[in-house]
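Researcher: We plan to redesign the surface later, but first we want a full-length starting point. C-alpha cells attached.
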C-alpha cells in the first residue's frame, strides 16, 4: 500500500473507520454468526446491537445500552469498539472538538487492550478485535495528524490489522464472524486500490454471517464498482431481513440515484428519515442533502433549484447531537 496517493489514503482511512464501525457492531446474545459452538455475548451488548442494526436507534444504543454494557460487561472489547464508532460519528459533526477526538482515541486503545486480554480465553475473537483496535488507531492517527503527516504511521497500523486477521484465519478460516469482518475490509481495499480483486472479497462475504450484514457489504461494494443491478439485488436481500433499518434504505436510495432512478429513490430517502430523531444529526443532514439533490434532478426543468447545502446546514444548526423529528426536517416543496 506504499503507492497510495494522499487523497486515496485519506479516503481509505476514512472509509476504514466506517467499515469497522459497522463490522464491530456484529455480535448479539445467542451469537448470530455461529449455529454450532456459539460464543457468549453479553445481554446489554446485544441490546445495543439490536437498537442500531434492527431498529436504527442510535440514540438508545448510545444513551442507554452501551453505558449499561460497559458497567456490566467490561471485558467485552466489542463495547469499546462500538463506543469508538459512535464518538467518531459525533466528531464528524464537530471537528474542532478535541475532547471528542481524545475520547475516540481512548476507546480505540481500550478496544485493543481488552481484545489482547480476550486472546487468552478466545484467541479467535481476541485477534479479530485486536485488528479492529489497530484499525481504529489508524483512523485516529489520520484524524489527528492529517493525511500527509500521518499516512506512514496509519499504514503501519493497517499492517497490524492484517497481521491479527491472519492469526484469526489460522485458528478458524471458515468462521462466519471472521469472514464477515475480513470480507468487508478486503472489499474496502479492492474498491480503493488498482489491481485488487473485489470478486474475491465478495466470495468471502458470502461465507459471513449474519447474512443481512454480508448482503449489505456486497451491496456497498457493488455500488462502488457501479454494478447497480447487483447492488440493488443485495440491498433488497438485506431489507427482507431488517426492513426497518434506516441505513439500508439510505443505501438503496444511493444505489437508485447512481442508477438514474431518482423517482424511486425518493421513497427510500423518506423511509431512511422516518425516525430521524434517533439518528446522529450529521447522518440526517447528509441524507437530507442527498434527497434534495435527487429531487432537483427529478425537477431539472425548473429554473429555481433548491439549495441543498443550505438544507443540510439547517439540520446541522439544530441543537443537540441527534437529528430533528420528521416534522422538523426541511421541506422539499
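Model: Full-length starting sequence:
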Amino acid at each position: 500500500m506504499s503507492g497510495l496517493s494522499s487523497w486515496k489514503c485519506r479516503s481509505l482511512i476514512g472509509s476504514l473507520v466506517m467499515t469497522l464501525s459497522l463490522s464491530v457492531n456484529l455480535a448479539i446474545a445467542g451469537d448470530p454468526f455461529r449455529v454450532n459452538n456459539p460464543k457468549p455475548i453479553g445481554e446489554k451488548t446485544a441490546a445495543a446491537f439490536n437498537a442500531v442494526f434492527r431498529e436504527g436507534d442510535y440514540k438508545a444504543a448510545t444513551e442507554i445500552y452501551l453505558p449499561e454494557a460497559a458497567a456490566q460487561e467490561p471485558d467485552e472489547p466489542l463495547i469499546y469498539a462500538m463506543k469508538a464508532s459512535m464518538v467518531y460519528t459525533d466528531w464528524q459533526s464537530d471537528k474542532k472538538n478535541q475532547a471528542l477526538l481524545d475520547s475516540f482515541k481512548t476507546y480505540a486503545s481500550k478496544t485493543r487492550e481488552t481484545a489482547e486480554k480476550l486472546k487468552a480465553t478466545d484467541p479467535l475473537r481476541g485477534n479479530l478485535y485486536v485488528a479492529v483496535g489497530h484499525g481504529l488507531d489508524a483512523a485516529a492517527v489520520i484524524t489527528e495528524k492529517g493525511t500527509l503527516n500521518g499516512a506512514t504511521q496509519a499504514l503501519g497500523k493497517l499492517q497490524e490489522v492484517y497481521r491479527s486477521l491472519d492469526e484469526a484465519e489460522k485458528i478458524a478460516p471458515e468462521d462466519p464472524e471472521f469472514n464477515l469482518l475480513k470480507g468487508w475490509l478486503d472489499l474496502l481495499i479492492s474498491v480503493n486500490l488498482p489491481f485488487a480483486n473485489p470478486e474475491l472479497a465478495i466470495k468471502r462475504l458470502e461465507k459471513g454471517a449474519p447474512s443481512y450484514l454480508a448482503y449489505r457489504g456486497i451491496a456497498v461494494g457493488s455500488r462502488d464498482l457501479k454494478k447497480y443491478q447487483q447492488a440493488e439485488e443485495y440491498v433488497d436481500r438485506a431489507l427482507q431481513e431488517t426492513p426497518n433499518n434506516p441505513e439500508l434504505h439510505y443505501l438503496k436510495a444511493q444505489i437508485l440515484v447512481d442508477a438514474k432512478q431518482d423517482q424511486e429513490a425518493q421513497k427510500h430517502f423518506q423511509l431512511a428519515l422516518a425516525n430521524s430523531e434517533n439518528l446522529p444529526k450529521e447522518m440526517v443532514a447528509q441524507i437530507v442533502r442527498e434527497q434534495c439533490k435527487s429531487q432537483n434532478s427529478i425537477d431539472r426543468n425548473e429554473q429555481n433549484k433548491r439549495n441543498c447545502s443550505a438544507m443540510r446546514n439547517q439540520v446541522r444548526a439544530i441543537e443537540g447531537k441527534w437529528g430533528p423529528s420528521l416534522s422538523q426536517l426541511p421541506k422539499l416543496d
